[in-house]
Amino acid sequence: MKKIIIASTSTLHGGSYLDYLLPALSVHFNHVKKLLFIPFARPSGITHDEYTRKVSEAFAQIGITVQGIHESDNPIEALENAEAIFTGGGNTFLLVSQLYKTGLMETLEKVVKNGTPYLGTSAGSNICGLTMGTTNDMPIVYPPSFNTLGFVPFNINPHYLDPIEGSTHMGETRETRINEFHHFNPQPVLGLREGSWLEVSGNKITLKGNLPARLFRKNQAPVELEPETDLSDLN
Amino acid sequence: MKKIIIASTSTLHGGSYLDYLLPALSVHFNHVKKLLFIPFARPSGITHDEYTRKVSEAFAQIGITVQGIHESDNPIEALENAEAIFTGGGNTFLLVSQLYKTGLMETLEKVVKNGTPYLGTSAGSNICGLTMGTTNDMPIVYPPSFNTLGFVPFNINPHYLDPIEGSTHMGETRETRINEFHHFNPQPVLGLREGSWLEVSGNKITLKGNLPARLFRKNQAPVELEPETDLSDLN
Hints:
2 copies of one chain form a homodimer. Helix content of chain A is 26%, strand content 19%. Chain A has helices at 22-28, 48-60, 75-81, 92-101, 104-113, 123-126, 174-182; strands at residues 3-7, 34-38, 65-68, 85-87, 118-121, 155-157, 189-191, 197-201, 204-208, 213-216, 223-225. In chain A, the strands form 2 sheets. In chain A, strands 3-2-4-5-1-8-9 form a 7-stranded mixed beta sheet. A 4-stranded mixed beta sheet of chain A has the order 6-7-10-11, with no helix packed on it. Chains A, B: It catalyses: Dipeptidase E catalyzes the hydrolysis of dipeptides Asp-|-Xaa. It does not act on peptides with N-terminal Glu, Asn or Gln, nor does it cleave isoaspartyl peptides.
């Protein structure tokens, strides 16, 4: 039975890394002693070791130790044996490239669909959708495919950002970009604002956090969804 | 001899389509009667016909007629015979996918390097760099490669945006994204603010417009470049 948290961001403005999520993670990772961390997205280019240290410090607060998957001699086996898995944020193109290059994409999909508890933040949440086609990241490397894990039957747009009132910038708004996506792709896109997350429990998908999320469907006007909305039938 | 304008944006806030560039375009396209337009990037998903109409209206003001390349039975021949070429903005992933799929990428490179006057705005400027790896766009389709035309020996970041003071958004700033790019790619990246453009005349590259541009090099602090800076040696 799937047990997944898909969070828009790791960190809220003014907060420290993962702190707003720790109460939910204590429950989500109940009985977990050791977490396997996937550091491939490398935010700001930090090393796998540095990133894993940062994550260890956060999880120490709820009594969980962290191992980086890059430390393992056999990463596929590490995934298969993991008590729980966390994929952190950073650059989605880099993350997806590494998951394919290392052959881990398939195993990650299998073990999480079979019930290994999973947490994704930002890029680590993007890959929970059908494709990475609604990432906000820069294409700094060329991945072999944009297809991702499909833990939910739609796409995620993390760090969803409303148009900035009074902005003089002429680049596209997030909403315009997602509308462009829908000219070429059928699946719904869920814009998760910073502070929102999805809780996936088996086939049940629930919107969590204090903020509404913005749902975009092809050829339909976007709608706002309140916290606790059941998204199990969204596809 | 190359004769190219690479503009950050087609439109300035409060202005109409291409108006701020028309004086420069009158000179750039001096003696041109008919322009071949590449509408593949489809901003906001508009059709090739709609986009071509919009461009025609702008160029009518300086006495140039416009034909969309999609109207041609033989687009490769149309490129080869074009008096001048304009690639408009929109989604860079879509533009690059279409240029490869139609087999036009190679011909476009050849004719512009051989001297057909060219204008690019936004996505049409992105493709003038070595790769599309510093686009701001969403990966709504999967192109066969991120390699682009290399009219300049570096990468372009159009619509360059300074960090927004007081922002509480935790998504990466443009500068952070470009720094991540430099962890995996060696070439310089020129952040062109809206209202700036590059003028390429043979091997001479000059920054135009009223604003400074921001130059990012791997392992170096970014620097501001004043208008009229000669970028011919940047690589």
